[in-house]
Amino acid sequence: MRILGIDPGLRALGWGVIEARGTRLSHVANGVCNSDGDDLGERLLSLHNQVGEIIDAFQPTQAAIEQTFVNKDGAGTLKLGQARGVALLTLAKAGLPVGEYAPNRVKKTVVGVGHAEKTQVLHMVKLQLPGCDPKGPDAADALAIAICHAYYGGTQQRQLKEVVRA
């Protein structure tokens, strides 16, 4: 199973691709999509195009994205939600099944603590994906989201296939 993890953001959208074979995980690629454009529509289109290029280049079979949490800055949350929506649309257009995970669940899965710092997430991603060098904190978070999906989403998919076979 090849998983594309997405850490949504309007200015910087982190992405990471991992390969999961049973319980074995390996790093494929990672990076950050920086939005271009003078207005919101152009920036969202830029993210859509870049995520589409990543899907074409790495051919994931599943995807995972972080859920948005509402904070004190309503306008910022709305913009983040729009970037997340564009990413979800791009993934759906490619026909990828998508798992959605809360930030605390991702951190708890990868680090063991739901309120872990970004440096802890980066450290644990490097330990779980030997040889991986994330291109920044957003890419590290995206890889963590993919790892979370490998544990939870992959298990759910396998269980569903077993139920269908029975």
UniProtKB/TrEMBL annotation:
Name the active site residues: D7, E66, D138
PANTHER family, from UniProt? CROSSOVER JUNCTION ENDODEOXYRIBONUCLEASE RUVC
The record describes its quaternary structure and partners as: Homodimer which binds Holliday junction (HJ) DNA. The HJ becomes 2-fold symmetrical on binding to RuvC with unstacked arms; it has a different conformation from HJ DNA in complex with RuvA. In the full resolvosome a probable DNA-RuvA(4)-RuvB(12)-RuvC(2) complex forms which resolves the HJ.
| UniProt cross-references to PROSITE patterns, sorted A to Z | RUVC
User: Top-down, what is the taxonomic lineage of the species of origin?
Assistant: Bacteria, Pseudomonadati, Pseudomonadota, Alphaproteobacteria, Rhodobacterales
Give the record's GO CC terms.
Answer: cytoplasm; Holliday junction resolvase complex
Q: Which UniProt keywords apply?
A: Cytoplasm, DNA damage, DNA recombination, DNA repair, DNA-binding, Endonuclease, Hydrolase, Magnesium, Metal-binding, Nuclease
> What is the official name of this protein in its record?
Crossover junction endodeoxyribonuclease RuvC
According to the record, cofactor stoichiometry and binding are noted as: Binds 2 Mg(2+) ion per subunit.
Q: In the record, what terms sit under GO molecular function?
A: crossover junction DNA endonuclease activity; DNA binding; magnesium ion binding
Q: Which residues bind Mg(2+) 1?
A: D7, D138
Q: Which organism is it from?
A: Tritonibacter aquimaris
Q: What is its EC number?
A: 3.1.21.10
InterPro entries reported in the protein's UniProt record: RNaseH-like_sf (IPR012337), RNaseH_sf (IPR036397), X-over_junc_endoDNase_Mg_BS (IPR020563), X-over_junc_endoDNase_RuvC (IPR002176)
What are the subcellular locations of this protein?
Cytoplasm
Q: Which residues bind Mg(2+) 2?
A: E66
Give the family this protein belongs to, as stated in its UniProt record: Belongs to the RuvC family.
